[in-house]
Amino acid sequence: MERVKDKVVVITGAGSGLGKADALRLSEEGAKLVLTDINEVEGRRTGEECEGEAIFFAQDVKDESSWPRLIETTIAAFGRLDVLVNNAGNSHIANIESASTDQWHDILRVHLDGTFFGCRSAIPEMTKSGGGSIINMSSVAALVGLSPYLAYSAAKGGIRSMTKSIAIYCREQKNLIRCNSIHPGSISTPMVHAALETLSGIHLMEEEDPEATRKALGIGEPLDVANMVLFLASDESKHINGAELVIDNGATVGLMSR
Ligand SMILES: NC(=O)c1ccc[n+]([C@@H]2O[C@H](COP(=O)([O-])OP(=O)(O)OC[C@H]3O[C@@H](n4cnc5c(N)ncnc54)[C@H](O)[C@@H]3O)[C@@H](O)[C@H]2O)c1
User: Fold this and answer.
1) Helix (H) or strand (E) holding 182
2) Secondary-structure class of domain 8-185+221-244 per CATH
């Protein structure tokens, strides 16, 4: 299958979890990848595991000056930019009473500043390339209240609204750029494993049968999200713009469900 053949795709936070799964899935389908992460070792490792062409660019997404350099690197390597996946993210477990000002600012800078810088940097190059797809990683935290994730919820809610604003701007500009947000529920990644340990005392990967426990807890797999990223990156989604795509096996639509 070559659903994104020769599309040039930038993925932030590609060293782990969802970003890594996105990279591997898009690579299988023919994309040319520019992978970024603050963790150089793991980011480079993802690139080495990809089937097709992939380069790595060390980046902290909240560093505004990194973005023009990333775009220049992408154009120098592949000559165009078709898709940006704003995936990099972190989390602090802190509620409205326990959250420190530093934690608040850190989360807003990584998620909101990072996504803003990414979208703003990508649009001129995508316009030159004749259009494109921006995929912003939000969360179900943007749709419902998560008490232990105060700043994270605020940041993901901001990404949801920012995405719609960008989508309608691009429609007005007729630049053929689409911008959509993805809202995963709990997916089995290092970020969620750490949260499970802290909040529930569950060490998922040390369970006798981690897969059975994952399913019992209603936790999805990174590939569940990567397949949606693939769809949004491909031309199959050409009429989808400003949408919020929830991937949580129904967790947020029912009361009292786990
Ligand atoms: N796993 C889930 O259940 C889930 C649910 C909803 C949303 N998300 C979102 O998906 C994205 C990926 O999460 P994950 O679960 O794969 O987490 P993860 O911790 O496994 O991976 C996050 C990656 O982002 C990188 N990163 C962190 N801060 C960075 C920065 N400032 N600049 C560049 N890279 C940075 C990390 O080094 C890491 O490689 C995040 O935006 C997260 O909020 C995850």
Assistant:
1) strand 177-184
2) alpha beta
